[in-house]
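tl;dr need the bound structure. longer version: we got a ligand (adenosine-5'-diphosphate) that a collaborator sent over and nobodys looked at where it sits. i said id run it. heres the input, straight from their email, havent touched it
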Amino acid sequence: MFSKILIANRGEIAVRIIRTCREMGIATVAVHSEADENALHVRMADESVCVGPAQANKSYLNIPALMAAAELTDAEAIHPGFGFLSENARFAEIVTKLGFTFIGPSAEHITLMGDKVSALDFARKAGLPCNVGSAGTLAKAEEALEAAEKVGYPVIIKAASGGGGKGMKVAHGPQALRQAFNVAVSEAKSNFGDERVYLEKYMDKARHIEVQVFGDTHGNLAVLGERDCTLQRRHQKVVEETPSSALTEEERTKLFATVKKALAGMGYVGAGTLEFLYQDGQFSFMEMNTRLQVEHTVTEEVLGLDLVAEQIRVAAGEKLSPALTSAKPVGHSIQCRINAEDPATFVPCAGQVENYYAPSGPGVRVDSALFPGAAVPPYYDAMVAKLVVWAPTRQQAIARARRALDEFVITGIKTNIPLHKKLLATKAFATGDYHIHSLEQFIKEGRF
Ligand code: ADP
C-alpha cells in the first residue's frame, strides 16, 4: 500500500480524498493555487505545495508543476479527483512514466473513452444499446443533413471531445441543422481544440441513467448499481439519486448484465461510469467517464462502501474487496449539488462565506470545503458542497433531504439551496414523473 498520495485537485473532492487517506493511514499532499492558499484541503492535508497562480491552466492543470510537487514530497501515487486532469490520458501517461502510480484507469482506456466517437464505436461493437445517429464524425453540413434524414428530426450535434454539457446543438429541421452544424463545429474547436462533431437522435423525454463499474488489475469487474441523474440544467446534473424510480428490477438486472458482458475482458481498472439515456423502454449509451463521478456518494450510501478507498486499493494492485463484490444496495440516497450561484439567474457567485452551518443528524452527509470565512474564488467550478442523504425509502429520503436543506446555512455568497428546496417540494419529484428537460421547463414556467 502507498504511504503518501498527492491529490491533484481542490475543493470538496480533495477534502473527500484526504479523509479516506487518513482513515487508511496514508499521508497526503495537497496542491493549491495562489487563490487557494487558505483552502480547507490545504489545511487538512499533511503537506501542501503551491503549484501556481489562480488560473487553473497555470496551477491545477500545470502538469510540470504537479509532477515537481510529487517529486519534492516523495508522494508515490496521484489521485486526480474529477474535472481538471482526471480524464487527461497524457497526464496519466506522464505520471506512470515518471514512476508514480496514477489512481485511475490506463491512459489507453482514458483515450478510448475520452473520444465520444471511439467510445460509441466500442459500445456498438461490445453490444451496448446505442442511439441511432451518424456512423462517425461529420466533415460537412451536407453529411449532417444526410445523416439527419436517415435518423429523423429532431437531432442533436455533439462534439467528439465534448464534456461538461458543452457543445451540444439541437436542430428540428434541415435549415436549423445547417446553422447548428457550423456553430457546433466552431464551438467544438474553441472549447475543446477539436472540431470533430457527430449527430444522433434528440430525445425529448429521456431519463439519464448511469451505471457504476469497478475493475481491478486481476481482471475482476463489478457492477455497482445505477444512478438517476435526470434533473439537469444546461445538461449539467443538479440532483442525483439511487436507485432510479424509473426502472423495474427486470430492466435493471438486464442493463447490468449487458454492461458486464460489454466490458468483460477489457481489463478496465478503477472506477468508471457508463452513461445512458433511457426513453420508451430503451437505453442508449452516451459515454463512459473514466474517473470518480461527483455523484459517487449516493452509490456509497446505499452500498456502505468507500469508493475512494477501493480506487486506492486497486491502484496499489489489490483485488476488489469482498465488501465491494458482495455489496447489495439498501435503501435510497439522494444528492443535491450546492452551487455558489444566484438562485434566480444562475450566474456564478464568488465571494467569502460568512456564516456556515452544515446540516447533520441521521442519514445526512455533507461533502464540502466551506467554513466560516472560506474564500470562494471565481476561477473554478461553482459547486461548493454536496448534500447527500440516505433513508430506507425514497419518500423518507426526500423528507430527509428537505429537512436538511432547511437546516443548511451559507451566508456571504449566494447558493442554489432555494432552488433545491422548491424542486424537492414538487409533485413531479415526489412521483418521479420527470425527464431530462423537466427542470429547465419548470424554470421557464417561472416555478422556481
Ligand atoms: P457531457 O459529456 O458534456 O456531459 P453527455 O453526452 O454526457 O455530455 O450528455 C449530457 C446530457 O446531455 C445528458 O444527460 C442529456 O441530458 C443531454 N443529452 C445528451 N445526448 C442527448 C440526446 N441524444 N437527446 C437529448 N439530450 C441529450
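gonna send this back to them w/ a short note. The domain at 132-201 is CATH 3.30.1490.20 (Dna Ligase; domain 1).
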